[in-house]
Amino acid sequence: MNARTEPAPESDAIARPPLVRELLLVAGLFLVYKFGRQLATGHTGEAFHNAHRVWDFERAVRLPGEGAVQSLLVHGDGLVHIANTYYAAVHFPATVAFLVWLYLRRPAHYVWARRVLAAVTAAALALHLLFPLAPPRMLAATRLVDTARVYGPSVYGNPATDSLSNQFAAMPSLHFGWALMVAIGLMVATRSRWRPLWLLHPLLTLLVIVGTANHYWLDAIAATALLGLALAVIPLPHRTATTAARARGSLVPAQRDEPALAGAGR
Questions:
Q1: Which of 85, 119, 47 minimizes the C-alpha distance to 212?
Q2: How many Cα atoms within 13 Å fall on the side-chain side of residue 238?
């Protein structure tokens, strides 16, 4: 059976969602998340109680100590400053750039990625409400340094007066969950043999969030579990002729002197 399918740009095969609607939708989801996080404030005692439980559980199952990562960062002011800057400046811009690129170049993958990120973020908000958690930088038992406060730059103020963020929403880590989704999304939407290098983004993010004492290992594990569930529930976009051809490396050439067929020959 020989077949030849004419390639079409993905933007022609899959309708790109209206830009204004998408901007409003993404902005609305972000505002719901930001305001929703505030509902979890005021649970300081519970947040510290849960932090002790998480810390003790990690030690019981013999997870590596977060201090081992931090000790690598604090050997020099330059490295820890870079880590703090990465934590503060890469999270949102990288995710926005990922969505913008998909919107412009891979519309079908954009819709899929936006749905996955929305689902993970909604689930994370629910967990933040149900399980307030103080980060390791606040827990004396960890003996970890708040690197942002000591070395800068810091995105957080005093927890008692900080009205812009909920610092007791450590689990799950959306820093890691979003970074992992960015890597997975780019690996799925592209066909370069170098695409596994996108995994460096979540790997660096993991080392940064742990080394700066903003998150426990379990925060990243919880984010991975939520993302895995969302990916299992929300299907990938259907393969178009173009994406199918990329998977094979090139389109199947038509036989010489045979007319091009619109569909599979039988």
A1: 85
A2: 5
Mapped onto helix, strand or coil, the DSSP state of residue 260 is: coil
Name which of 107-111, 115-119, 138-142, 152-156 the model is least confident about. 152-156
Cβ contact 215:87 at 8 Å = no
Residue 250: which residues within 8 A CB-CB, separation 6 or more?
A: none
- Has residue 247 got a pLDDT over 90? no
Distance of CA 194 to the CA centre of its chain: 20
**φ/ψ (deg, to 5) at 169:** -125, 55
For residues 88 and 154, give the distance between their C-alpha atoms in angstroms, rounded to a whole number.
Answer: 7
Contact between 159 and 138 (Cβ < 8 Å): yes
pLDDT of residue 219: 97
Question: What is the distance between the alpha carbons of residues 14 and 83, in angstroms, rounded to a whole number?
Answer: 39
Q: Which of 183, 160, 159 is nearest to 170 (CA)?
A: 159
C-beta separation of 183 from 202 below 8 A: yes
**Is 250 exposed, middle or buried (CB count within 10 Å of its CB: 0-12, 13-18, 19+)?**
exposed
Check residue 136 and report its DSSP letter: G
Which percentage of the chain shows pLDDT scores above 70?
77
Task: Please state at what angle helix 107-130 crosses helix 174-189, rounded to 10 degrees.
Answer: 160
The residues pairing with 169 across neighbouring beta strands, listed in sequence order, are 133
The span from the CA of 133 to the CA of 53, in Å, is: 10
Cut 0.85: pTM above it: no
